[in-house]
Amino acid sequence: MKKSLLSAVILCVVAGVVVAATHLRAASSGSSTTEVKIDNFSFNPPALKVKTGTTIHWTNRDDMPHNVVAEDKTFRSKVMDTDEQFSFTFDKPGTYSYFCGLHPRMRATITVE
What mean pLDDT is reported for the chain? Predict the structure, then answer.
């Protein structure tokens, strides 16, 4: 009983160290993630300002399929059904305008500094 309790405590400590090291590595590399929700035929938020190295995760929360298409063809997702995701890491500064290829009136921008 004492050995299994000790093993469980050691496992929890090791897991905590691994999680902390992962967060420190992400913070020191300057990488981060930002979420964009697709819902009610819109991207939310419609305009973002992020640092170089940021990964954007788009999640379709709408009950209609959508995709994400950069005007300059930098990125393009597949058509996403409800709760599907697409991610892209922005490695270069600039302003990226994008839209839904299925519903072109859905538009947004990401400014990378």
Answer: 83
CA distance 59 to 95: 21
The mean pLDDT of 14-43, rounded to a whole number, is: 63
Q: How many CB atoms lie within 10 A of CB 86?
A: 20
pTM of the model: 0.72
pLDDT digits (tens, 9 = 90+) for 21-35: 333 333 334 569 999
Helix (H) or strand (E) holding 52: none
DSSP-based three-state secondary structure for 32:
strand
Residue type at 2? K
Sheet strands side by side (includes 42-44): 42-44, 32-39, 54-60, 85-90
Please count the residues of the chain.
113
